[in-house]
Amino acid sequence: MSPLDGVRVLTLAINLPGPVAVARLRGLGAAVVKVEPPAGDPLAHFLPRWYELLHQGLTVLRLDLKADEGRRQLEELLGRSDLFVAAMRLAALERLGLDWAALHRRHPRLCVAAVVGYRPPHEDLPGHDLTYQARAGLLGAPHLPRACVADLAGAQEVVSAALALLLARERRQGSGRVEVSLARAAEWCAEPLRRGLTAPGGVLGGGHPGYQLYRAREGWVAVAALEPHFQKRLAEGLGLPCLSQEQLERAFTARTAQEWEVWGAERDIPIAAVRDVPPPREP
């Protein structure tokens, strides 16, 4: 059996964090119903193929929650659900009668995971992944981020929070509500930088020659020989008495990045060619 067989999830969450989270919950066996606004989810317009993948196995309905009939249908769905996932400002939830106090009064067994940008007292501050990363210190201007760090980290936090809520309810601790802040998710991802681990000159920020990017004959290669046994294999494989950045810079110009990736795999050393566009599936 899947862990969440028999668990019913209702979601209003559009864009990225919510759909990624409920797709994971669906993969764990939950039955998911998604309610979208009449215009649909913007993600379907930006990335239709990814939208399709994230919504496989979900029941998708479009309801106008500003109309009485739409709210009536939503209320019926809430009454049949174990978990409600929302991704809108708290003021908007209150206007729809979906704030925690109102929901808990009408549906005492319903657990709620609310995706928010910022926690009180800044709950009305607008934001998106880009601005969350900017505030957390994760951007290297003028370059835009290659990953939606806050959105995806937030999605995983929604999954873990939802599982904790459902487990607590099954242990007869009652239903509960959790707010997952995307801004806080970005701050959490920035913790290695804040602690100096990935800061310039830090162990993972260029301060260790075994954990570095090197120019190859063609392209760039990422080397992650951080542990002593990896360092030993790398030094022996390259015929070096010890590892220094200067020696490694010279050594890696001998082959292409793809050739070094194969070379590293043969010797059980974490080496990868740097790709401009990620492959469809990671090895």
Describe the protein.
This protein is α/β, with parallel strands linked by helices and 283 residues long. The chain has 2 domains: 8-192, 3-Layer(aba) Sandwich (Rossmann fold); 203-273, formyl-coa transferase, domain 3 (2-Layer Sandwich), CATH 3.30.1540.10. It contains 14 helices and 9 strands. It has helices spanning 17-27, 42-46, 48-54, 68-79, 90-95, 100-106, 129-136, 149-170, 182-189, 191-194, 203-207, 228-238, 245-251, 257-266; strands at 8-11, 31-36, 59-62, 83-86, 111-116, 177-181, 211-215, 220-224, 271-273. The strands form 2 sheets. A 6-stranded parallel beta sheet has the order 3-2-1-4-5-6, with helices on both faces. A 3-stranded antiparallel beta sheet has the order 7-8-9. Strand 7 (211-215) and strand 8 (220-224) form a beta hairpin. Helix 1 (17-27) crosses helix 8 (149-170) and helix 7 crosses helix 9. The radius of gyration is 24 Å and the shape is elongated. The mean pLDDT is 95.
**Uncertain regions spanning at least 5 consecutive residues:** none
What is the β-strand count?
9
CATH top level assignment of the largest domain? Alpha Beta
Mean pLDDT across every amino acid position: 95
Number of helical runs?
14
Share of helix, binned: 40-55%
Globally, the shape reads elongated
Which percent range describes the beta-strand content?
5-15%
Strand order of the largest sheet: 3-2-1-4-5-6
Radius of gyration: 24 Å
Task: Indicate how many domains the architecture comprises.
Answer: 2
- CA distance, first residue to last residue: 28 Å
Output the CATH homologous superfamily of the largest domain: Crotonobetainyl-coa:carnitine coa-transferase, domain 1
Question: SSE order in H/E notation?
Answer: EHEHHEHEHHEHHEHHHEEHHHE
| CATH topology label of the largest domain | Rossmann fold
